[in-house]
Amino acid sequence: MARRAKHSPEAAEAWAASLIGARGTVSALTEKTRGPVRFWLTSNGLPSAFVRGGDGFPGLTMATLCAAWNDTTNETLESLRRLASETASTTAAQDDTTTTTTTEQDDMALQESLAMTRGTRTTTTTTTTAPEAATQLATLIAQMAGGAIDENKVRAIVDEQAGASIAAASRHVLENVKTELTSALEKIATAQKIEIEVKDHTGTVRNVGRQHKTFPRLLKMAAARRNVWLRGPAGSGKTTAARMVAEALGLAFYFTGAIDTEYKLLGFTDAQGRIVKRQFREAWENGGVFLFDEVDASLPNAVLALNAALANAYCDFPDGCIPKHPDCIIIAAANTYGLGADATYVGRMRQDGAFLDRFVKLDWAYDEELERATCPNAAWCAHVQAIRANVTRQGLQVIVSPRASYDGAALLAHGLTWDETEEATLRGAMTTEQWRSVAIDASARKAA
Question: What is the radius of gyration, based on Cα positions, of the chain?
Answer without folding.
Answer: 33
